[in-house]
Sequence to fold (350 residues):
Amino acid sequence: MKKILITGGAGFIGSHVVRLFVNKYPDYQIYNLDKLTYAGNLENLKDVESASNYNFVLGDIVNGDFIMELFQKEMFDGVIHLAAESHVDRSITNPMEFIMTNIVGTVNLLNAAKHIWKDNFDGKRFYHVSTDEVYGSLGETGFFYEDTAYDPHSPYSASKASSDHLVRAYHDTFGLPIIISNCSNNYGPNQFPEKLVPLFINNIRHNKALPVYGKGENVRDWLYVIDHASAIDVIYHNGKTGETFNIGGHNEWKNIDLIKVLIKVVDKKLGREPGSSEKLITYVTDRAGHDLRYAIDSGKLQKELGWEPSLQFEEGIEKTVDWYLENQEWLDNVTSGNYQKYYDDMYKDR
Ligand code: NAD
Ligand code: TYD
Fold:
């Protein structure tokens, strides 16, 4: 019976990874370690919480003693590390949280894995989940490859880049059996509504302004979250130790075009004239250091491990809009408390 630690399993992507592993691998014991920050929500995992192979651990990866004790007690065989501070705008207003969780927290996990596995790495794996934002910004053409030089611009992407380097350093220096993936922007159910897609769906529904940064010309490469989870499964089980895999959907959208698609789909589902909510579009001050374009080449993952996205974008967006429209209570729950203050502070002077 393998014991696998998934960090950040109560968050957006982590909850889909936990669900996949709990359901697909009844022989594994899955431990979800999460601090339950504003972005972590156990409601995301209601359907698996009573499974016999699911365990929840409340804790902070920044607390090194706690992490070491947990690893010594549970003797995990594998780690899939997703816990992070993940929102670029928050990293601009409060970089230190990102340094602590994304860098110090990752090193605490590396140290604990190194300690319990000693030099016997047979069947062991430390999987670090990262982002394409570490590669920086592309011009109008080109793609990010696994060997593209790192060039992060935000405190978020710089902290993720730093953690990637440290994970590789533990492989090169101590032989730790690591693997890394860098994925493009995810969308889908359970994403905290500070990120573009859920924020805008919610605002369209409630006839609130849609704050488009700059001219809306930045380009992102969007992947349905369940496809990211399936890529993580394939890489965790079949990827070669020490390697990096890019994950992406070959699905680039200029922000303003994506926003217009969201408006059309939401309007239609709410029985409004499709496109009528475009009047809510409000151009606001650009994000500082805003990367122009991200685009991932995931050819290596496709060729070596046979992974491909399962969903066309149109289908993914329909499913996503349906989920948020049907789960207003989830949105209301996660946006109660401090969220309103965050929203007012973030958008008041733009
Ligand atoms: P999220 O913000 O939705 O969830 C992060 C989770 O980590 C939350 O459950 C939170 O409670 C937990 N967490 C935060 N700090 C913690 C700490 N100190 N100790 C323990 N738990 C803590 O993030 P997400 O969008 O699901 O991203 C998950 C991972 O995937 C991150 O590492 C992120 O960098 C990476 N990633 C995200 C995207 C994306 O589009 N969202 C794309 C590529 C890679
Ligand atoms: P986001 O969802 O924050 O993801 P990331 O910054 O990690 O790519 O933002 C996606 C794009 O949408 C990005 O170019 C910034 C832009 N954006 C807006 O125009 N308005 C908003 O209110 C938000 C949150 C994002």
